[in-house]
Predict the 3D structure of the following.
Amino acid sequence: MTFDVDESSARILLPSTRELAARLASERQQETAEEMFAFIATALPAMWQDETLTRLARGTCLAMVELMLAMMEHGIPADRAEPPVVAVEYACLIADRGLPIGDLLRAYRLGHAYFARILTDTITDLARDPAELAAAVRETERFLFALVDTISSRIGAVYIEECQRLDSRTASQRRDVVHALLEGETSDVRRAEQALGHRLTGPQLAFICWSDADPSALPHAATRLQEIFNAPRPILIPEADGALSGWFDLSRHPMPTDALNRARVRGVHIALGPVMPGIDGFRRSRAAAERVRRLITLSRKSPPTVTEWAQVALADTLSVDLEAARELVRHELKGLNRAGDDVDALRQTARAFVVAGFSCGAVASNLHIHRNTALQRVKKAEQLRGRPLTERPAELLAALSLVDTIGSLLLEP
């Protein structure tokens, strides 16, 4: 036996079946629709708890019974079926209520099962010729499957389109509210919280994720942060340049800074602002996250990276005027301001020497090198700098911080 996958052009040709459809339409259409509704409602009770949904569900059952019987009676091919208007409204309302598409499509499968059983039972009761009975059942089965497949596919598309429309509208509204908050154009905290689904009175943490390679990984990065922070779902705002930004409400738990390495996602940069309270913190944390992104972009670091504002706060302040920062680095580092692993090791030694209070022993311990090696590196660093590392230590550390954060942009070739 062969099976034709493309059943879309199936139609009812047997006169006896067409007459049966006409009789059911005139005598039992309303009753059949009510029974179908009860059958579906028993299997999917959650879908009928809303009064408006219930009315549209009943209307959809009646419209579908009417459609199926009319197409059977007149021999109309299944692929010409269009969802009734009430069925379209029902699908849109299902999407509006946030109910899953699986329940919507299951309702059609259940309706198909019920209607097929009613027709098969009726045909069996009326048919006297076994050959005619087999032909009628086979023809009806093909037609109903094709019709319901056509209708449910188009209804599924309606549902998806409505969800996309709702998502677009919600995203637009969310962006408007966020813009108003950032620009200081709203003081109604409660309304803003309702629109965003986000508490604004607690500690706020802004973040920005971006990737030059795989933008699809950005939502995964936001989810990873949420898991690490054990926080409610964040506000997420897709940016025009492809980045994904947002805010976490950290009222539930403080930020676990020691776990941020677990937030790394392949191909993704993550910039974090400081945690700050309230609407003012909402704005200031975002501004700081933007500055962190600027620094990471200037540094040309390869992803993945996760950078907190506190890690780069000094370099952020010093690099507001980039040319002035470059001049500071040149003046303070002199010969230490060059690329290369050997010079990089000397800069690390210089930093460790100043931070440790000018102790070569402490440098050796902190960098896990021999004391004589530490002493030799300090002398070499002083030669390249052209002055002792004990002179202008604050300016020296500032210059080293700039190089550590921004890197090659400030170094001489």
